[in-house]
Amino acid sequence: MNDSVSYAFLHGGGQGSWVWDETIAALALQAGQKPGRTLALDVPGCGTKRGRDTHALGVDDIAAELVADITAAGMSDVVLVGHSQAGSIMPHMVKAGRKLFRRLVYVSCSIPLPGQSVIGMVGNGLHGENPDEVGWPMDPGTHSMAERFRVMFCNDMAPGEADAFLAKLGADSWPMASYAHTAWSHDQLGLVPASYVICLRDGILPLPWQERFAARFKTGRTIRIDAGHQAMTTRPHGLAEILRNEAAV
């Protein structure tokens, strides 16, 4: 297996580049003397870019900045790994810099249909109530966001691990336009080889929705991991092994 591969990682909503630390460390450990290059990206307003005024930034602005970050790092032939909400911006990144990427890996990612917002895609009901909405694992009308987050993000974490994760969650904010945007670019889907990692115990995206999103992304390969939504936190070595295998395809 050739481990001299460049990986760029993009986090999901409410998180930052910090969420990839364990997976990047696992990649380096597994690859030994040939770890390749890794770059954990931050959406404006998140991680190392917290505190930015992002109210004027649209989806294409976000994508252009992320592509510029990869270019500035001198990386090429990149395996772009995205998680959750990152899936919505990755096709726009391909549009902005297609030649940079050798493969896309979507880890439990979602993408709205053209004309639909992220907020509309999620909806207000429970999982399974509306076939056109992902829904929530607990009734948003009777359960607090903190209660929902523990089920959504931490259902496969030990209590202490969940507390530590939830203490970090929410300090990072994607630009509001990313939630309200409806003119999503799907034209680039399928132009770069892609894989989808299904998280079998995901508390946010039920399995049928992950399968639907994998098809929507036009992925050629689907891999399953026995993990919740935060596979990079709870199964970093398993996810790192998957990424190495996908990079070698």
Structure report:
- The chain is α/β, with parallel strands linked by helices and 249 residues long.
- The protein has a single domain, classed as Alpha/Beta hydrolase fold, catalytic domain (Rossmann fold, 3-Layer(aba) Sandwich), CATH 3.40.50.1820.
- It is built from 10 helices and 6 strands, in the order E-H-E-H-E-H-E-H-H-H-H-E-H-E-H-H.
- The protein has a 6-stranded parallel β-sheet with strand order 2-1-3-4-5-6, with helices on both faces.
- The termini are close together.
- 45% of the residues are buried.
Summarize the topology:
Blueprint: E1 6-10, H1 21-31, E2 37-41, H2 59-72, E3 78-83, H3 86-97, E4 101-107, H4 118-122, H5 145-154, H6 159-168, H7 177-180, E5 194-199, H8 207-216, E6 221-225, H9 231-234, H10 236-247
Parallel strand pairs: 1-2, 1-3, 3-4, 4-5, 5-6
Provide the spatial order of strands within the biggest beta sheet: 2-1-3-4-5-6
Number of domains as seen in the coordinates: 1
Under CATH, the homologous superfamily reads Alpha/Beta hydrolase fold, catalytic domain
Q: What order do the helices and strands follow?
A: EHEHEHEHHHHEHEHH
Strand content: 5-15%
Mean pLDDT: 95
- Fraction of helical residues: 25-40%
Please give the alpha-carbon distance between the first and last residues. 10 Å
Radius of gyration: 17 Å
How many β-strand runs? Answer: 6
CATH classification class:
Alpha Beta
The number of helices is 10
Shape: globular
Residue runs with pLDDT of under 50 for 5 or more positions = none
